[in-house]
Amino acid sequence: MKKRKIISMMLVMMMASALIAGCGSTAKNGGEAGNTGDKQQENAGGNKDKVVNVFTARHYDVDAKVYEEFTKQTGIKVNEVKGTAEELVERLKREGESTEADLFVTVDGGVLNYAKQNEVLQPIESASVLQNVPEQWRDKDNNWVGMATRARVIVYAKDRVKPEQLSTYEDLATDKWKGKVLVRSSSSLYNQSLLASFIELNGEQQAEEWAKGMVSNFARDPEGGDRDQAKAIAAKVGDVAIMNTYYVGQMLNSKDAEEVKVAENIGIFFPNQDTTGTHLNISGVGLTKYAKNKDNALKLIEFITGKDGQTILTQGSFEFPVNEAADKPELLNTWGEFKTQQIDFAKLGELNKKATEILTKVGWK
Ligand code: FE2
Questions:
Q1: Ligand 1 centroid to 74 CA: how many Å?
Q2: If you measure from the C-alpha of residue 304 to the centroid of ligand 1, how many angstroms do you get, rounded to a whole number?
Q3: pTM listed for this prediction
Q4: What is the per-residue pLDDT for 89?
Q5: How much distance in Å is there from the Cα of 221 to the middle of ligand 1?
Q6: What is the pLDDT of residue 47?
Q7: CA 319 to centroid of ligand 1, rounded, Å
Q8: What is the DSSP annotation of 126-179?
């Protein structure tokens, strides 16, 4: 009895850490630039008037370019402290009023909401930020605002699959795709949030049936990151994969000729256009509760969500801008408009535990 209690406590702890581990959590199985274990770059303090300190769980090189341009335009230096979202929220809690962090940046709406629930953020009071970011991409109390969005779509082998054969996420779990489906592991927050969205939209039972169907259609045991699923399509391991849109853009613009070739041979399909819409997630920024450089922090949020910041960000990451004024990459226009899931991002966090339980139960490795 006692042993069982300890095991269940351990499980709860493991799930909690899975919930808050952002992109960085994928490093161990994806080889994508995760930040876990990176030596934290600590350079807080200095001239109080000319600095802003950012705790960030995002793993994209372009963020530094956005910050550089901000410094060029304002003279305000940006210090990045990198870590997993879990580490950073815990640190904000532990440090309380003494924290040097002014901003918290991460991917995943569920994680952003987790930070809010842990009371480490405060409302962003800036008319221009509210103007830059439409209401649908903001926390209702403005504790965080979106900086970019990403869709989790179906990609397919152009030479073996016709887009007419594709329709919904649900269809991928039917017999017709047996042995042909590629997707990364259940430790990926991207998959956990995808399943959480299905729990919210279709109920727990249907979500579980979907996950079960997917597992029985896997072309191989899940391995690698999103890019590796595209590579496995090229290697004819499978014909269809679930992938975030921005990775396709990054691969098409990669310095690695092989990655470009892989990306050129896959098509992007936005599923569920006649039903619940394509799954969308968000990257965002929150103002920490005890921000000491609050004015500078607000200026940086204004910049990130403004036209220049949004243009630099999306040209480098191939995420979708939250501000329509951005000059987004032409590639994103070629993908066209698509219908997106309409759910509260907070639900992704609230349903993470349930989603993780289902993924484990159905044997999604
Ligand atoms: Fe990522």
A1: 29
A2: 19
A3: 0.85
A4: 97
A5: 20
A6: 45
A7: 10
A8: -HHHHHHS-GGGB-TTSSEEEEEEEEEEEEEETTT--GGG---HHHHTSGGGTT
